[in-house]
Amino acid sequence: MNILYLEDFAPGQHFVGRTRVRIEEDRIKAFASEFDPQPFHLDEAAAQASIFGGLAASGWHTAAVTMRLVVDSEFQPAGGIIAAGFDELRLPRPVRPSDELRVETEVLDVRPSKSRPEQGLVKVRTSSLNQDGFAVLIFVANLVVPRQGVVA
After folding, report:
1. Distances (CA, A) of 13 to 91, 122, 123, 140
2. Dihedral (C-alpha) 133, 137, 138, 141: value to the nearest 10 degrees?
3. Three-state SS for 63?
4. pLDDT in tens, 59-86
5. Measured between alpha carbons, how far is 77 from 86 in angstroms, rounded to an integer?
6. Cβ pair 118, 103 in contact under 8 A
7. Partners of 23 in the beta sheet?
């Protein structure tokens, strides 16, 4: 695993996830029952009558799985994946039972901090894709990344 500092990033770089996660129906319901207990995440009949037309994972469940996949990917900023904020979070299609998710991350911008010379920001777009290659979650985040050899 290659740990990357601010200087190692450049716009246009792509990082691909090494693993996939299969979303099981029981995990959809377990997550929803604790964190997002809406009928279309918990009950097949209610989900069928909803806008989703069938059981769908909570967007927050999808986001949590995405985070795990990013942590397990080749995208390894020094100090960890620390978000300063998000510019965008989209859920273009629902995640269904048996979907298999993977992630891809693209570097959009890199800039040193003006007020903290020991770090900078890396703007990334991360996409969770299902087994058919369709995006189910897309976020644009600004991540705090240390500079190599610079001390505050």
Report:
1. 23, 11, 11, 15
2. -140
3. helix
4. 999 999 999 999 999 999 999 999 999 9
5. 17
6. no
7. none
